[in-house]
Design goal:
Two copies of one chain form a homodimer.
Chain A (H helix, E strand, L loop, with lengths): L14 H24 L3 H12 L5 H7 L4 H13 L3 E5 L7 E5 L1 H22 L4 H19 L1
Chain A binds a DNA duplex through α4.
Chain lengths: ~150, ~150
DNA sequence: TTATTATAGTTACAAATGAAACTTATTTCA
DNA sequence: TGAAATAAGTTTCATTTGTAACTATAATAA
């Protein structure tokens, strides 16, 4: 007879809570690396990353790739265009379709933020040994594959 | 010479992104288990969990325990009181301090939601073997300990 | 004592987010 | 054809969230 049979749910040991707690701290710390200094939101930063590695994609493609709602994508791109960091035209073949690219300013800012962000990830990964790293990779893949299917 | 030395940051393989992606899906699915049926938000649900296992605590204690901002705690409790799920009085020793408890209705709803939520966690944990479970536990502890210190 | 500081909780305002409706362009197919 | 359905992107409005300021009470210390 368990002592806490009427009390099975303890937040501190509940997997979704533990994950959420860790994730929120990491996301907050990451955002601090660029949000204030460059006046860029996490959504906007994700778009910058995506356009850096995938030039000439559309808003829909970007959103699909990083699993971001189309309204959020639209807003982020609008802001980035206003800030002069992203250049948007509409495709001549399909005039609904946007064609997005980083501007020179966008690339500059991207290359300023990138090392900060990678540095933070490295600081996390550095505390894990090779074995733990591959376990983490495996667990994330397994859980993610399960929840999405 | 790496092929993508100008392209080191790929969101899909970036640890914070992968964590955030997994966490968001899990949080969303969990919330679906109770939000629509019982008209309860994730914040409110966390308060219910906390008051179930820790009766008579104050708003500040609840917030500290589940690492929730005091404004969010205040709002969640306000809503829960309005819904008649939580009872709030102020301590006679220190009249700033609230003393919170689930009402009978609150306990009822808690015990309806709890198995749904535990069932979802179980469905996640079931796909991992014993070894993987202990790895996950270890990794979460290690990473969480690192980011909070 | 009483002036200062600290704490618990709430309120108010601004910014972020989400869902639905909308506009324009393209595709489908009767 | 051209009417209906689909797709890309934007706008609107309601809700949520975050920050700062505020109220009331209690603790500290001059």
């Amino acid at each position: 007879m368990s002592d806490n049979k009427n009390n099975r749910l303890v937040l501190e040991s509940f997997l979704p809570y533990r994950l959420s707690y860790l994730t929120n701290i990491i996301s907050r710390k990451l955002a601090q690396l660029y949000s204030k200094q460059f006046d860029i939101s996490p959504h906007e930063w994700r778009i910058l990353i995506t356009l850096n590695s995938h030039p000439n994609i559309s808003a829909a493609e970007a959103g699909e790739r990083i699993v971001m709602d189309k309204v959020a994508v639209s807003r982020a791109i609008k802001n980035l265009c206003t800030m002069g960091l992203v250049h948007k035209i509409f495709s001549t073949e399909d005039r609904r379709r946007s064609v997005l690219n980083l501007t020179e300013d966008g690339k500059d800012i991207y290359h300023k933020i990138e090392p900060l962000v990678i540095g933070y990830e490295d600081s996390l990964l550095d505390i894990l040994d090779k074995e733990e790293l591959s376990q983490l990779d495996h667990l994330l893949n397994k859980l993610t594959g399960h929840v999405t299917t």
